[in-house]
Amino acid sequence: MTPTPSSSLIVVGLGETLWDLFPDGAVWGGAPGNVACDAAGLGARSFMVSRVGCDSLGDQGIAALESLGVDCSHLQRDPRYPTGTVAVTVGPAGDASYVFAADTAWDNLAWEPGLEQLAGAADAVCFGTLGQRSKESRETIRRFLVVATRAVRVFDVNLRQHFHSPELIRDSLTLATVLKLNDEELPVVAAACGIADENPLAAVRQIAERYGLRLAALTRAAAGSVLVADGMVSTRPAAAPVIVDTVGAGDAFTAAVIIGLLRGRPLEAIHDHASRLAAFVCGCRGATPRIPAELRE
Questions:
Q1: What is the CATH number for 242?
Q2: Which structural domain, as residue segments, surrounds residue 105?
Q3: What pLDDT was estimated at residue 1?
Q4: Partner of 127 for a Cys bridge, out of 14, 43, 225, 296, CB 3.0 to 4.6 A?
Q5: How far is the C-alpha of 268 from the C-alpha of 252, rounded, in Å?
Q6: For the CA atoms of 236, 8, 281, 224, what is the dihedral angle to 10 degrees?
């Protein structure tokens, strides 16, 4: 079978997009936006579906996305609410913590007629819990996912602060075909699903089986990562020799998994590429460094 070229694939980031406010400066980010940027860096046609304010931060955010190859024709402008921001604190080990601004533009993502066509054409869509913290955005995201029947629908759990609930997690799993989560999120997701198995691999497999997922990915920081798909399991040790910060590493991992799945690559090849790309991002400041040619395939 001839692999599908990345340039023919349509990947959509759906949900929050915002500025990460580091102590030494601001970097454009948000998990779905990061995945969209990384997918574009890997050669896909990448779109961002979100909302920013009619302000300078919104202008700069659109420019940042477009500079990394993301199509912003479905990125809405809000005349009332500001572009989203999040205060990021990076610990001694490079781990990050976040405090999100309330009542921002991406909380007011509205359904527009053009989204129907994009959803129907999408090969993959990435969404999470944070983008669904408001009723309006949650309804828009779910409507998009219901229309995107042919797409790989990636639920990147992305638990932040108190912006999630067991019901939200379960509802999102029913809309997904792929799950991405980390080792801190796994116990929360397992509990939401009524799974009490303390073995991480067993818990991931049970979640995947219960919701009929095509693939489940668990990232475990220094302990590496695990992919589960079609009864197969792939494990990898951590591959980051130098850590500047971990912001965006999981999103890069997700983007590589998406492209690998869509191109029909073997599970081990998908995992190898995702691990190497995540390690590269860990060695850079910010979530979406430009991807070098040797990491694009």
A1: 3.40.1190.20
A2: 8-287
A3: 45
A4: 14
A5: 17
A6: -10
* Separation between Cα atoms, residue 265 and residue 52, nearest integer Å: 35
Which residues lie closer than 8 Å to 257 by C-beta, 6 or more apart? 154, 178, 180, 215, 217, 227, 270, 274
pLDDT in tens, 162-207: 889 999 999 999 999 999 999 999 999 999 999 988 899 999 999 9
Strands 152-156 and 232-236, sheet pairing = unpaired
| Tens digit of each residue's pLDDT (9 = 90 or more) over 275-288 | 999 988 887 777 78
Q: In angstroms, rounded to a whole number, what is the distance separating the alpha carbons of residues 221 and 183?
A: 8
Number of structural domains found in the chain: 1
Residue 172 contacts residue 146 (beta carbons within 8 Å): no
Taking the C-alpha atoms of residue 78 and residue 248, their distance in angstroms, rounded to an integer, is: 26
